[in-house]
Structures are given as C-alpha cells and as structure tokens.
C-alpha cells in the first residue's frame, strides 16, 4: 500500500480538526472576528500541518530533522510550522476574499491578528510535543498507552519479527563503537518507513537487533509482515551508493517471523511500556538463531505462512523441514522466504 493510499483517511479528518481548532479560537479569543474567517483559517492551517506530520508534505525535510537532538528538532519544527501558518493564512485570505467575499480586500483578508498567530504557535508547540513523544515511544505504542488499551492484560494473537543486522561485531572491530552506533542508527532509521507502511510497530531495539510486531490481522493481511522485510531490503539497496561511500557496503540482515497467542500488557509506573508474554516471542528469537545455522537470510514458521491470506507473486517459499527449537515442546516446521527477483 502506498503512503498516499495509507493516508487517505486524513483527507477529510485534517480539515475537520483544523475547523474545530478555528472554532475554538473564535469562541474563546476572537468573537469580535467572523466565525467563518476563524474556521477557514483553522482548516487551512490544520490541513497543512497535519499533512506535514503524516509525510504528505515535505517528507524528506521532516525525516531529516527527526534525527536531530530534541531542542534542534523542536526549533526546526516550530520554524516549519510558522512558515506553514503564514502560507495557510495567505490561502485562507484568498478564499475568504475571492471565494466567500467576506472581507473588504485581498490585503485585509491575508492579515492575521496577533492573537491568532500566537494561538497558532501555541497549538503548534503542543502538536510538536505530542508528536515528539509519539516518535520516542512509537506511534502504535503511544496510541495504546493514550487509550489505555492494555492497562489490563489481554490475550491476543500477534506476529513477531526479529531482525538482526549481520556483521555488526566485525564492523565495530574495524570502525569502533561510536561509528558502529551511528551505522546502526542509520540502518534502523531506514527500517522505520517499511514498518510503518506495513502497519507494524517497532517494539524494541536490543544491540543490533530490532523487534517488530503486528496484530495477527494486520500482519497476515496481504502478507504485510513478509512484505515489510523485503521492502526494507529494497530501501537499503536503493541507497546502495551512499552506503558504499559512507560505510563500505550495504548492510545485510537476518530475519525470523512467527505468530501465535501472547498476553499483552502495559507495565511500568514511571516508564510505561507495552510488553508481551508467551512462548511465541522466545520461539521467534530461537528461529532467528536457527536462520544463522541454516545460512538462510529470512525464515518463517509454517504456522505463520498458513495464516497469511494471500502470498504475493513476488515472494517464494521453500520448505526447510522441521526443527527442534530450544524451550519449545515438539518440532517446528520452518520455511525460507525469498524474493522471486533473487537469482
């Protein structure tokens, strides 16, 4: 699913949120102004900012500043928002003067009151804070914590992906720990977009390993969890020249996927976290170790493959037989997954 299609829901929602913000401003701070003027300005400002936050506007710039330290990120975002507020006010003024004819002149329509600009900046600061926290804990985890979905433990079925970066130890020996951390950070930054496009969530990073999870429905629908792995490989290959120039080669990884029932719960008092309890998580970790033994880059349990509604033609499945996995009663059927474009 393309990013544009994934965010189609935002087309009606962003203007609605902006209109509500404009209505709130008129009701609390600007009843001397016109209701329609506040609402139109709210629609224009809210739409631009929310489209920006959902990467429908200036995605390269947004992804770049997200890697900066929080103070620099906040300053750059505030400047970006302020610029968007100015542009949105020009658009709103044009609509009010030419389309709705509610002001005397185009110049007057484009003038924004000091209170209106201050309100927009204050609202922007709140949005910056919310989205920064969301970035730090992960979008899905943030939503779950905000809604309290896992305040009480629940049992559910989920898909898990353990993704391990190959060669990190030798890279550290050649380049040092600091350079290795920069290298890993860049790799995991590249992982974010494929995970988001697949509807998954990066649950944790442990050294050179990332743990990604999906609900069973979102992970198996149209093989989203498998697509994520090869989407990530494509993202790395698309930037191959840069990886070669900066780090001496394109990163490689191993991936293992499995699914099954887990207990999902919110834990922690001062630092909240969504965590998963059950054999499925441990089994996925053992599968990742097995992929190294078998020298297969991407492995999955047959249990997961059976749950996928439709395997895309771009992927090939090869049976690897049954294997005993430490800590699990009974053998586990395992398959190799590869791209049909691979030789």
Question: What is this structure's SSE topology?
Answer:
Layout: H1 3-6, H2 10-29, H3 35-53, H4 59-65, H5 70-99, H6 106-109, H7 114-137, H8 139-147, E1 154-166, H9 168-175, H10 177-198, E2 201-206, E3 209-215, H11 216-220, H12 224-238, H13 240-247, E4 252-267, E5 273-277, H14 279-294, E6 298-301, H15 302-307, E7 315-324, E8 331-339
Parallel strand pairs: 4-6
Antiparallel strand pairs: 1-3, 1-4, 2-3, 4-5, 6-8, 7-8
- What is the helical fraction, as a range of percent? 55-70%
Characterize the biggest β-sheet: 8 strands, mixed
Assign the CATH superfamily of the largest domain. Answer: Nucleotide cyclase, GGDEF domain
Tell me the structural class: alpha+beta
Percent of sequence in beta strands: 15-25%
Unreliable stretches (pLDDT < 50, length at least 5) are 1-5
What is the name of the CATH class of the largest domain?
Alpha Beta
CA-based gyration radius: 24 Å
Order of helices and strands: HHHHHHHHEHHEEHHHEEHEHEE
Overall average pLDDT: 82
Note the gap between the termini: 26 Å
Q: Please name the CATH architecture of the largest domain.
A: 2-Layer Sandwich
Number of helices: 15
Number of strands: 8
CATH-derived topology of the largest domain: Alpha-Beta Plaits
Indicate the overall shape: elongated
Number of domains: 2
Pfam family, one: Guanylate_cyc
GO molecular function, one term: adenylate cyclase activity
Transmembrane segments: 7-27, 33-52, 72-96, 116-133
Keywords: Membrane, Transmembrane, Transmembrane helix
Task: Please characterize this protein's 3D structure.
The structure is a single chain. By secondary structure, the protein is α+β, with helices and mostly antiparallel strands. It has helices at 3-6, 10-29, 35-53, 59-65, 70-99, 106-109, 114-137, 139-147, 168-175, 177-198, 216-220, 224-238, 240-247, 279-294, 302-307; strands at 154-166, 201-206, 209-215, 252-267, 273-277, 298-301, 315-324, 331-339. It has two domains: 3-137, no CATH class; 139-339, Alpha-Beta Plaits, CATH 3.30.70.1230. Strands 1, 2, 3, 4, 5, 6, 7 and 8 form an eight-stranded mixed sheet that branches. Strand 2 (201-206) and strand 3 form a beta hairpin. Helix 2 (10-29) crosses helix 3, helix 7 (114-137) packs across helix 8 and helix 9 runs antiparallel to helix 10 (177-198). The longest helix is centred in the N-terminal third of the chain and has 30 residues, at 70-99. The model is unreliable at 1-5 (pLDDT under 50). One of its GO terms (biological process) is cyclic nucleotide biosynthetic process.
């Amino acid at each position: 699913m393309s990013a544009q299609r994934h965010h189609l829901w935002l087309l009606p929602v962003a203007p609605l949120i902006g209109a509500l913000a404009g209505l709130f401003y008129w009701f609390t701070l600007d009843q001397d102004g016109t209701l329609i003027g506040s609402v139109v300005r709210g629609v224009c400002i809210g739409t631009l900012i929310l489209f920006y936050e959902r990467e429908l506007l200036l995605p390269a710039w947004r992804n770049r500043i997200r890697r900066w330290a929080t103070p620099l990120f906040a300053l750059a975002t505030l400047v970006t928002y302020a610029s968007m507020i100015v542009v949105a006010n020009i658009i709103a003024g044009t609509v009010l003067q030419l389309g709705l004819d509610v002001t005397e002149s185009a110049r007057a329509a484009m003038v924004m009151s000091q209170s209106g600009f201050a309100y927009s900046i204050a609202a922007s600061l709140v949005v910056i804070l919310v989205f920064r926290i969301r970035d730090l804990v992960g979008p899905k985890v943030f939503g779950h914590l905000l809604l309290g979905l896992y305040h009480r433990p629940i049992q559910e079925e989920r898909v898990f992906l353990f993704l391990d970066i190959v060669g990190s130890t030798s890279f550290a020996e050649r380049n040092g720990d600091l350079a290795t951390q920069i290298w890993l950070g860049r790799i995991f930054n590249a992982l974010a977009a494929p995970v988001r496009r697949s509807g998954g969530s990066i649950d944790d990073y442990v050294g050179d390993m990332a743990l990604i999870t999906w609900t069973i429905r979102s992970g198996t629908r149209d093989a989203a969890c498998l697509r994520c792995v090869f989407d990530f490989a494509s993202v790395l290959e698309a930037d191959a020249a840069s990886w070669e120039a900066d780090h001496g080669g394109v990163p490689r990884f191993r991936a293992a996927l499995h699914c099954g029932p887990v207990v999902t719960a919110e834990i922690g008092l001062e630092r909240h976290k969504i965590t998963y309890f059950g054999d499925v998580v441990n089994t996925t970790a053992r599968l990742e170790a097995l992929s190294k033994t078998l020298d297969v880059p991407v492995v999955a349990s047959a249990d997961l493959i059976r749950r996928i509604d439709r395997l895309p033609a771009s992927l090939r499945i090869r049976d690897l037989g049954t294997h005993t996995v430490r800590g699990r009663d009974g053998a586990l059927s395992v398959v190799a997954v590869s791209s049909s474009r691979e030789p």
